[in-house]
Design brief:
The chain is built from 21 helices and 15 strands. By secondary structure, it is of the alpha/beta class. Bound molecules: coenzyme A (COA).
């Protein structure tokens, strides 16, 4: 099978999974929602955005591989409203009444993090049954962070706007409660700490939905609604009006006013990554199809050649790029990366990490040559670097190589995976082999014979398990990335992310941890 065929096969499998997220709770619930005269989450978002502008949906596969619906009953992403890049979240009321399950919470917290790091105004399109009651133990206590985050964003001067279309009860009432601006839809919004049955139980009082938490009551009596919307479209209009009056200014430098498109065709990006990741590929072929004018000024090209480092720009934004060129990271590559990251911090230049690494080199010669020390230098540089980072997993991203290349735990502003990516502590065969060696040694130590037949079965089982757990849909389902993307969209997505990133100041540092020499 050609590289292209292998990639296209993975892309069509990905499309099937994305379609599940788009389908939300399925036909029955979508129909019921429309019959009630309500818009779907994505329809609300589409009307909110400036016409003909893109929406970068984040983590659409959240919850994949779990018992919950793919997408985790929440849509999140970055879009432009009245010319302002905003972080938009929308509950999907067709999935379990929009209730928040553990994956919904993870997705919501991730979107808060993106809003905070990049200074993006937040617009919450609210219609949720609150906590998913059967899994409340997973979400009740950590879920408080959703409300804490909203007010912390506000404290940092990042505007928060809630458009309430439907249910927003109990803890959910604090989404509008903690937002700077609140719009409520007449006949739809229901914002109360306790609904009629609970009030009856608690105090014996008889009350109805409207008097406890309707839009009219909140706009006229409690003052929780700043704006009263006659219907959903009106709420969206009011949301746009609020953004237009924020007087919002981006704090990062503007991109170059003009730039060239890549000379080489992005379509070729389907041909580059081999179906078998053991076969190396040259990331310069990727870079040339992603950066402005296909121009990549390589830094230290003759030294540590297993890692390409260099300067370029994407949609007019200057970037430094670190790209694995041949799987393994040696001491030279680690030192080169550390130097390059420091240089990017001196010139306030964002960094892009293109992953295809099996990790740091192992073996006597390399241990004696200080591979841990040099890898630690690179991890120190990545961890303490203050310029924005974006990671793209193109192929392998294994072991500490994932860390050194700014893996998820190293807080890249965004992390995306291509369908060809794989990430784990090590490759499935290696991991199964290590387990086998350890088990054999344990049997020997006890003086027991080793079960060779069982060993073969164990290896095959473990290999299968690790392979499945290394795949991008599985990792995306667990929110270990912000989405699995078509390689051909890489340039556009990097452009949207870089533009969003420049809503916040872009500043490097000269303060790193002590570099072990
Ligand atoms: N946890 C788990 N499942 C929930 C849920 C919740 N909080 N809220 C709704 N669901 C489920 C329903 O059981 C139903 O499942 P089913 O279709 O498989 O039977 C599905 O979601 C749709 O709910 P339904 O009541 O038919 O939808 P609706 O649009 O008419 O009403 C709500 C939606 C949210 C107003 C209503 O379901 C409700 O009041 N839920 C409880 C709200 C609550 O008290 N939450 C606790 C807050 S901390």
């Amino acid at each position: 099978m050609s590289n292209r065929e292998a990639m296209l096969e993975k892309l069509s499998a990905l499309e099937v999974e994305h379609a599940k997220a788009l389908a939300g709770g399925g036909e029955k619930y979508v129909e019921r929602h429309h019959k009630r005269g309500k818009l779907l989450a994505r329809e609300r978002i589409e009307l909110l955005l400036d016409p003909d502008t893109p929406f970068l949906e984040l983590s659409p596969l959240a919850g994949w591989g779990s018992d919950f619906t793919v997408g985790a009953s929440l849509v999140t992403g970055i879009g432009v409203v009245e010319g302002v890049e905003c972080l938009i979240t929308a509950n999907d009321p067709t999935v379990k009444g929009g209730a928040s399950n553990p994956w919904t919470l993870k997705k919501a917290l991730r979107s808060d993090e993106i809003a905070r790091a990049n200074r993006l105004p937040v617009i919450s399109l609210v219609e949720s049954g609150g906590a998913d009651l059967p899994t409340q133990k997973e979400i009740f206590i950590p879920g408080g962070a959703m409300f804490r985050n909203l007010t912390r964003l506000s404290a940092e001067g990042i505007p928060t706007i809630a458009l309430v279309f439907g249910n927003s009860t109990a803890g959910g009432a604090y989404i509008p409660g903690m937002s700077d601006y609140v719009v409520m839809v007449d006949g739809g919004a229901k914002v109360f700490l306790a609904g009629p049955p609970l009030v009856k139980m608690a105090t014996g009082e008889d009350a109805d939905d409207e008097s406890l938490g309707g839009a009219s009551m909140h706009a006229r009596k409690s003052g929780l609604a700043d704006y009263f919307a006659v219907d959903e479209q009106d709420a969206i209009r009011l949301g746009r009006q609020i953004v237009s009056r924020l007087n919002w200014r981006k704090q990062g430098p503007a991109p170059k006013p003009s730039y060239d498109e890549p000379v080489l065709d992005s379509e070729d990006l389907l041909d580059i990554v081999p179906g078998d990741l053991k076969i190396p590929f040259d990331p310069r072929d990727v870079i040339a199809r992603v950066v402005d004018g296909s121009v990549f000024d390589e830094f230290k090209p003759l030294y540590g050649s297993s890692l390409a480092t260099g300067w370029a720009s994407v949609h007019g934004y200057p970037v430094g790029i670190l790209a694995n060129a041949r799987g393994v990271l040696f001491s030279e590559e680690s030192q080169k990366a550390s130097q390059f990251i420091q240089l990017a911090n001196r010139s306030d230049t964002p960094l892009i990490f293109l992953h295809n690494t099996t990790g740091y080199m192992v073996g006597q010669e390399y241990e004696q040559g200080g591979i841990i020390k040099h890898g630690a230098q690179m991890i120190n540089a990545v961890s303490n670097s203050k310029v924005p980072h974006i990671s793209v997993l193109m192929g392998a991203s294994y072991g500490a190589g994932h860390y050194g290349m700014c893996g998820r735990a190293f807080d890249p502003r965004f992390l995306f995976a291509w369908p060809s990516a794989k990430s784990a502590v090590m490759g499935p065969q290696q991991l199964a082999g290590v387990l086998s060696i350890v088990a054999r040694a344990a049997a020997e130590a006890k003086g027991q014979p080793y079960d060779e037949h069982g060993d073969g079965q164990m290896r095959a089982y473990v290999e299968g398990q690790i392979e499945a757990e290394s795949l991008p849909m599985f990792l995306s389902g667990r929110l270990y990335d912000d989405g699995v993307i078509d390689p051909r969209d890489t340039r556009t997505i990097l452009g949207i992310c870089l533009s969003a990133i420049h809503s916040a100041p872009v500043e490097g540092t000269s303060t790193f941890g002590v570099f072990r020499m």
